Amino acid sequence: MKALVYRGSGRREWAEVPDAALVDPTDAVVRITATTICGTDLHILRGDVPQVEPGRVLGHEAVGIVEQVGQAVTGLEPGHRVLVSCISACGRCRYCRASIYSQCLGGGGWMLGHRVDGTHAEYVRVPFADWSTHVLPDSVTDEDAVMMSDILPTAFETGVRNGAVQPGQAVVVVGPGPIGLAVITTARLFTPGLIIAVGRSSGRLAAAKRFGADIVLSAADDPVAAVAELTGGLGADVAVEAVGAPETFELCTRLVRPGGRVANIGVHGESAALHLQQLWARNITITTGLVDTSTTPALLAMSVAGRLDPSQFVTHRFALPEMEAAYDLFERAAETGALKVVLSR
């Protein structure tokens, strides 16, 4: 089969690899019908995730058709159309029983495109298939479903829920890329009083307005002063870091008011300073986290009910064999205006 293979920092190749096959009795093999590229895949290519070894098939988001199931799989059958979660879960360990699937002690967590071959391929082996897939209703399209494999639960859980967004609050999102836009989308479910987006790209800031931000601010200006002015001198109740850079994390700690919360989503490949000499007396809560995908069923239900529109994230479409071209375009998002690209059979 063909797949997108990580060849080391800065190098990737659409190449022939061994066919995906069952390894454990809890596995399923899924034929990919739709996948998408994540900012985390770009972090891997930049060498920010050294645990990913050369030769790994990238990708952790997909929709597809079940081809085979292991002997211990009870909830899936060949022919089922499924959402493949970006997080795998054994379903039995202490963390899985608490729905903290990212910290699975039974061999799960972030596996696909990280510790095992991922979804940027014609077929993928899905570990712990009963717990790591969702059978899809006919009313949910492949494109909509693949947005709920990672980007929407990540934004909802690690940004909005960790940030404890409440009605009437001021929320600032630093980094209006796809994840930041998903934060804006899911934050609106809690009716905050003000949503502010801070970014460098005029195109991304325009997208933030379309997705529901009330105010957009250029990072080149003075966002700290602007947010203070917009909030009566206090700062934001919640500041969400959606980039993964030292300067954006440190900016979030300056944007938040006393008693506020900084929710970090970004994947960080280098150290960021934590200025405790300024923060210790301000009652600031800082959260980090890898998505658990525990909210995926709720997001799917909202999509079915018409309360959530995942299709607005998709700006470009490619055939699966055009993976290299899709990466080229996504890597130049500031130039191309790409938000999410979908690759389909």
Task: Summarize the structure in words.
Strands 3, 4, 5, 6, 7, 14 and 15 form a 7-stranded mixed β-sheet that branches. Strands 10-9-8-11-12-13 form a 6-stranded parallel β-sheet, with helices on both faces. The protein has a two-stranded antiparallel ribbon with strand order 1-2. Helices cover 28% and strands 25% of the residues. The model has no long low-confidence stretch (mean pLDDT 96). It has 345 residues and is α/β, with parallel strands linked by helices. The longest helix is centred in the middle third of the chain and has 11 residues, at 151-161. Helix 10 (276-279) links the parallel strand 12 (256-264) and strand 13 (285-287). The chain has helices spanning 39-45, 94-97, 129-132, 142-146, 151-161, 178-187, 202-211, 223-230, 246-255, 276-279, 296-304, 323-331, 333-336, and strands spanning 2-8, 11-16, 28-36, 62-69, 81-84, 123-126, 133-135, 170-174, 194-199, 215-218, 236-241, 256-264, 285-287, 314-319, 340-344. Helix 5 (151-161) crosses helix 6 (178-187). The chain folds into 2 domains: 2-150 and 292-344, Quinone Oxidoreductase, Chain A, domain 1; 153-287, NAD(P)-binding Rossmann-like Domain (Rossmann fold, 3-Layer(aba) Sandwich), CATH 3.40.50. The chain contains 13 helices and 15 strands. Keywords: Metal-binding, Oxidoreductase, Zinc. InterPro entries: ADH-like_C, ADH-like_N, ADH_Zn_CS, ER, GroES-like_sf, NAD(P)-bd_dom_sf. Its cofactor is Zn(2+).
